[in-house]
Amino acid sequence: MRPVILILLCLAAVRPYAQTAPASGAQSSAQPAPKADEIVALEQSAWDRYANLDIDGLGELMQPDYVNLTTAQQTREETLKTMRQELQGCSVSPVHVVDPAVTVVSPDVALIVYKSKIVKQCGIHRSTTVANLTTVWLRRDGRWKMQMHSTYIVSGFSVRSQ
Questions:
Q1: With DSSP H G I counted as helix, E B as strand and the rest as coil, what are the percentages for the chain, rounded to 5?
Q2: Among the listed residues 48, 73, 69, 68, the one whose alpha carbon sits nearest the alpha carbon of residue 58
Q3: How many domains does the chain have?
Q4: 62-69 and 143-156: which strand pairing?
Q5: Bridge partner list, 128
Q6: Across the strands, what pairs with 91?
Q7: Which pLDDT tens digits describe the chain residue by residue (162 residues)?
Q8: pTM score of the predicted model
Q9: Among residues 135, 108, 101, 103, which one has the least CA distance to residue 32?
């Protein structure tokens, strides 16, 4: 039931951004709808930055009003701060997007749902988390960025640094 609620939250988050046809019948200036492979590549790029501990680079892929729905709802700034704290002194194994399903909501809005395994080593502590993940990608000013991301942990645990 929880994955259905997360998907509904994702769609509610993007509804204000979904485009409708111009009322006057004029041509839309929007770019063509993305291909599924493009969205998968964007998602993989975000995980590559995370695994390389490039939190600033990951932040560049987030909309200013980005929302993270993982253990708690967080803003972009809160998410980046938490990542910096949690990853301090850690290493992360490469993370792969597995079994992605991409839904193009509009030419400028796409939703990706997939599975992944995140392995993190922090000193002598190692965590392995298997999760179902969802990200909403928006294209603004010709650039794709994450609007919302959620993680539903299937198994595993997370190590938190204080």
A1: 30, 40, 30
A2: 48
A3: 1
A4: parallel
A5: 119
A6: 121
A7: 444 334 434 444 444 444 433 333 333 445 899 999 999 999 999 999 999 999 999 999 999 999 999 878 999 999 999 999 999 999 999 999 999 999 999 999 999 999 999 999 999 999 999 999 999 999 999 999 999 999 999 986 554 444
A8: 0.79
A9: 108
Write the single-letter amino acid at 46.
A
Tell me the CATH number at 92: 3.10.450.50
Q: How far is CA 67 from the centre of its chain?
A: 9
* Domain ranges, residue 53: 2-14+38-156
**DSSP for 73-131, written as a single string:** EEEHHHHHHHHHHHHTTEEE-----EEEEEEEEETTEEEEEEEEEEEEEETTEEEEEEE
